[in-house]
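Example record

The entry below shows one chain as it appears in the dataset: sequence first, then structure tokens.
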Amino acid sequence: MRVWIAGSRPKTLPAAIVPVAVGYATVVARDGDSMTHIDNVVLALIVSLALQVGVNFANDYSDGVKGTDSRRVGPLRLVGSGLVPASVVKRAAYLSFLIAALAGLGIAATTSWWLIAVGVASIVAAWTYTGGPSPYGYLGFGELFVFVFFGVVATLGTTYAVSERIDVIDVVASCIVGALAVGLLIVNNLRDIPTDAQSGKKTLAVRIGDKMTRRLYCAIIFLSAVGVASLALHRPWAAVALAGYVLAYSPVSRILRGARGAELIPVLGGTARVQLMVGMLLAFGLVAS
């Protein structure tokens, strides 16, 4: 069980929780009814968590069978470590996607059947991130995928599931969530630049290099804070989320000091804490406003 929990990459789970919390908070801030379609909020959380775990297992499987994880430094990989057969990890990914699909079907049944298309696109994007003949994660588009699907789509999907409407403030909130999620991937890819380059995995970090990747990380954290400040112009209490960026001091300083390899593992955890704290404070601030 410990092996499977580690393989699911629990430090990435805030990327699944935050968009649902923020998406629901935008509705409560606008409509004031906190119990509207609460069942769909629960289903949206199941979809988000299942997709996150599913993409983690799918990435573990695809990188493992391609040999990308054989020399990597970082948290446990099930296939790359040889602890779990590749076929079993593949089935775990499929099961996770099935759970997400069933929960998403429940949402679509009470809102709009068009959400099925969004769900299918999300699952396909999750698998082809590192799977298939031409995985886009190997071409430098991983950050874009995370921003779109674990930021904009996950947040606005929750908002729509609850209220069946979306406005500009909802979009801004989703971009903040997306930027924080991208920060996690940047740290992960920065750590893996040497091994990814050797194995032919041309992530954005490999393409732009170590120095520019560090700058990108700092920029994405800063831009997310700018997004919070702009949101506070319309929802004043949202400014409380800026307090969460205190936690960014440690990971940002480590990045700027040149941490690399195993030294970046605490940075990954620190970035996850920033994402969770800012996201929860933002959700609270939106409701308070």
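Notes for this example: Residues 2-288 form a domain with the Farnesyl Diphosphate Synthase fold (CATH 1.10.600). The radius of gyration is 18 Å.
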